[in-house]
Amino acid sequence: MLGVWGRAPSLGQPKAKRYMTHFLDIHTTPQPDLHKIISNARMMKDARKDMSKGTLDEDQPLAGQMVALIFEKPSTRTRVSFDVGVRQMGGQTLVLSGADMQLGHGETIADTARVLSRYVDLIMIRTFEEQTLLDMAEHASVPVINGLTNRTHPCQIMADIMTFEEHNGPIKGKKVVWSGDGNNVFASFAHAAKQFEFDLVYTGPEPLDPERALDGLYTTVRDPNEAVQGADLVVTDTWVSMHDPQSARERRHNQLRGYQVNDALMAKAKDDALFMHCLPAHRDDEATSSVMDGKHSVIFDEAENRLHVQKAIMRHCLGL
Ligand code: CP
Ligand code: NVA
């Protein structure tokens, strides 16, 4: 008699070990994989927009799978786009706040990673120190995705590359100018410059220069007007990131005011140049509303493409 549990012999049999890979950063992901993720994201987006042809989500690759989305910092885009992306592919999510977990009360990352791996099939984490992400990846037996650390934001820049190529074709050989703080989003642009073979120019005040580990991946032009000459893409980000102390706000604003992206600055870029900002923005600080809502701006396409590219990243991580 087998009872309600079905065929007894299947109980307790070990699961076959599955393919898995982490997505921790752009420079640690092989170049062919990065290109494949972008092209798969584009295919999934196109298929979803033209429902008459069906969608690549129809096979529901995440059916029966549970994804943990851990946030130790606030988020709108990352939270919603991952949650929606998992659901579109047939999976389910647990959205967890670091502060509500034992993680926020002293449990080690290693123990948390081992425990979560017994419950879920994939972990996305937004955290402060990069080491937290690396420890999670080292000790988890399921894939881990970087949803932003103090040092990098790779999912964002994958969406930005996808967005650029949708509008203006291959980014290879193009001139990308970052105006403002040399922060975590810039760092992922720097990693992408090497992997996707574009020229990256940083313009910003010396005290906020990018970290030395990124040397060689970009050039610095201190004068923003000179830097944006002939740019194919102009990018900026908030002047005060989530990990920056609020006490530094006034000093940073004073240092960065000259690097605001406004109409006069955009006019020095190419006529068909794009403007990007990962959002959330502080309108009329790092970029004027006239630029954010103007003809060069693709900021909401960037936000939408987080959804599509992260679906492709999750499939890449799970080998689906
Ligand atoms: N760009 C981005 O990551 O936005 P959120 O902080 O809203 O997730
Ligand atoms: N540099 C910003 C990006 C937010 C998506 C931050 O870290 O707060």
Listed once per kind, the bound small molecules are: phosphoric acid mono(formamide)ester, norvaline
Termini separation comes to: 37 Å
Strand content: 5-15%
Radius of gyration, CA atoms, in whole angstroms: 21 Å
Provide the spatial order of strands within the biggest beta sheet.
Answer: 7-6-5-8-9
Structural class: alpha/beta
Label this structure with key terms.
disordered N terminus, 12% strand, single chain, alpha/beta, binds phosphoric acid mono(formamide)ester, 320 residues, 4-stranded parallel beta sheet, binds norvaline
Draw up the topology in text:
Elements: H1 31-49, E1 66-71, H2 77-88, E2 92-97, H3 109-119, E3 122-126, H4 130-139, E4 144-146, H5 154-168, E5 175-179, H6 184-196, E6 199-203, E7 219-220, H7 224-227, E8 233-236, H8 249-256, H9 263-266, E9 274-277, H10 289-292, H11 299-318
Parallel strand pairs: 1-2, 1-3, 3-4, 5-6, 5-8, 6-7, 8-9
